[in-house]
Specification:
Shape: elongated
Oligomer: single chain
Number of strands: 11
Order of helices and strands: HHHEHHEHEHEEHEEHEHEHEE
Strand order of the largest sheet: 6-8-7-9-10-11
Distance between the termini: 28 Å
Helix content: 40-55%
Strand content: 15-25%
Number of helices: 11
Length: about 350
């Protein structure tokens, strides 16, 4: 049950906190009211002063109480990532994000800027050019994303629900998810194929309501037999390097990664999907992510395996969740496909991201 589902408990918690931190003012307010009620024989000037004093105390205590009560509400905050788009396109997409957040999630950009200092730039990550095959730009963007998360944590009290809107390479989305981890409940948005408005594809809030476990569920092992993935090729025999193709949507990639693994003397595993690459919002995205995480963790427990290298195919939003599940402590390297050069390049190592955020 979320905080929004416990109004009485929140009210009582804030009332007790008000008594704890404003007990002197509350005591004086009770005394002043007692003077007004019982002191009918007191001089008029004393009663007037008691009224004024009571109003001042009531304003101070009431303002503290209402502010703390407002902080208990869930704060739904977007974080928009736009990579490889120009300024005009970025502004157009940002407007779509604010619109998607306005009515159902009660988000108002101007109010968040005035009350919390969170403006458009602090709630987005924009890089105009495409990311290079080599260099530190990938890591720099993950670091900036981590800074955005830290700023959210320092600016907002109470419980924050993060709404990622991602327009970026899949490998970067996975790295961003790894840094985000499980610190915030997540409502994940995605543009449908063919365009249109953003739609919600999964939410850890629903998991908390249905299972009693929220965002932490992505780190739990999935029950077997798996529902959404199957291992098409097992890594036999295990090697120190294991190339894992995650075919969770899009074009098949296992054959090409198998050839690459053979050329580099690495073991190879292919994980494909059971839904013909058509993952729908009504599917259980969190269970799918847990199944992927369970396989990766299992293969890393093999004594011979020192590092797993991931090759990704599927929805960008899905790989943000995969990153959340994997975290920043496992020896995992993420590869990105560069269509112009027609090759994969290693762009991020998740175990080098643990210092971020």
């Amino acid at each position: 049950m979320s905080q929004e589902d416990r109004p009485f408990q929140n009210f009582l918690r804030v009332a007790l906190r008000t008594l704890r931190y404003k007990w002197e003012q509350v005591g004086m307010l009770v005394f002043s009211l007692a003077v007004l009620i019982l002191g009918s024989e007191a001089p008029i000037i004393l009663r007037v002063l008691a009224v004024l004093f009571s109003l001042l105390l009531l304003y101070d205590v009431g303002d503290y109480f209402l502010t703390r009560l407002r902080e208990q509400r869930l704060k739904h905050v977007p974080l928009f990532v736009a990579i490889g788009v120009n300024d005009d396109e970025y502004i157009r997409m940002a407007r779509m994000v604010w619109q998607a957040m306005s009515t159902p999630w009660n988000f108002d950009l101007h109010r968040y800027e005035e009350e919390y200092g969170l403006d458009r730039l602090r709630l987005s990550l924009h890089h105009e050019s495409d990311l290079p095959q080599v260099g530190t730009r990938w890591l720099a963007l993950v670091e900036k994303f981590g800074e955005r998360l830290v700023r959210l944590g320092s600016s907002l009290s109470g419980q924050t629900v993060l709404h990622p809107f991602l327009n970026c390479p899949t490998a970067l989305a996975l790295g961003l998810g790894a840094v985000a981890g499980t610190r915030y409940e997540i409502v994940l948005h995605q543009l449908p194929q063919g365009g249109g408005s953003y739609q919600v594809v999964t939410s850890t809030l629903h998991s908390r309501q249905q299972r009693g476990t929220g965002v932490e569920i992505v780190r739990q092992d999935a029950p077997e037999p798996f529902q959404y993935v199957r291992v098409e090729t097992e890594p036999q025999p295990p090697q120190s390097r294991l190339f894992v193709a995650l075919h969770l949507g899009g074009y098949p990639l296992c054959a090409g990664i198998a050839q690459l693994a053979a050329a580099e003397g690495a073991a190879f595993a292919c994980v494909t999907n059971t839904y013909q690459g058509q993952l729908k919002p009504e599917d259980d995205w969190l269970l799918l992510v847990r199944e992927v995480k369970t396989l990766v963790a299992r293969w890393l427990r093999e004594p011979a395996v020192e590092r797993i290298e991931l090759f990704l195919g599927g929805p960008v939003a899905l790989f943000f969740l995969v990153g959340m599940a994997l975290g920043t402590f496992l020896p995992l390297t993420v590869h990105q496909w560069f269509p112009d050069a027609k090759l994969y390049k290693a762009v991020l190592k998740l175990d080098q991201l643990r210092r971020i955020g």
